[in-house]
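re: ur question from yesterday

yeah so i grabbed the chain u mentioned. its 208 aa long if i counted rite. heres the sequnce exactly as i have it in my notes:
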Amino acid sequence: MSSRDFLDEGRVAQKRRTRQALLDAALRLLKRGEEPSLESIAREADVSRATAYRYFPRIESLLNVLPLAGLVADPEEILGAVDGGDPVGGALATQRYFYELAAKNEKAFRRLIHATLDEALRQEDEKDYEPLRGSYRLRTFDTALNSLRGRVAEEEIEKLRIALVVLSGVEALIAVKDVVGVDSQVGFESLGWAARILVESVCSNSGT
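ran it thru and got these structure tokens back, copy pasting raw so excuse formatting
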């Protein structure tokens, strides 16, 4: 029986509460920078290991659906101080927020990277590959760049959005620290410089 079938049979409400308790426990462990395993999550949630395995057969299956809402603000909050018609300001505010969030919770985000890389290796067929992370950033950059719609081709906006996502978050932080070997703040100055040039270039080419 799949975990989805298990959730939809029998005492559904109680099962959903238990599942949420496991997710909440995993988030608490990540916030503390602790190694998340099904055993440690079960202990934190005060359920048996066997119960945890019924809901999530592998640690990756839990981490891949982990709601990061406890860590990530809504787009409206992130962009609250930015003029809605300012795509440059919105993009830079979004980039800074997700980069600083990753730096502040570096251990937690590195754990998530580890889990999603393992899961990606299991998706052997590239045609069937499904993105495992990043929806919060994508949604916020969509909001930040919304004022460009109707004035800039959707293809250009999509290219810009992809580039900005790459320049933000934990992946950018890892590249700065592990590949380039510089301090996170020094690295962010270059990332912010690159993001500004990209957005201003798109705006300039479109006459906005």
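noticed a couple things. Residues 13 and 76 are 31 Å apart (CA to CA). also The two ends are 55 Å apart (CA to CA).
anyway ttyl
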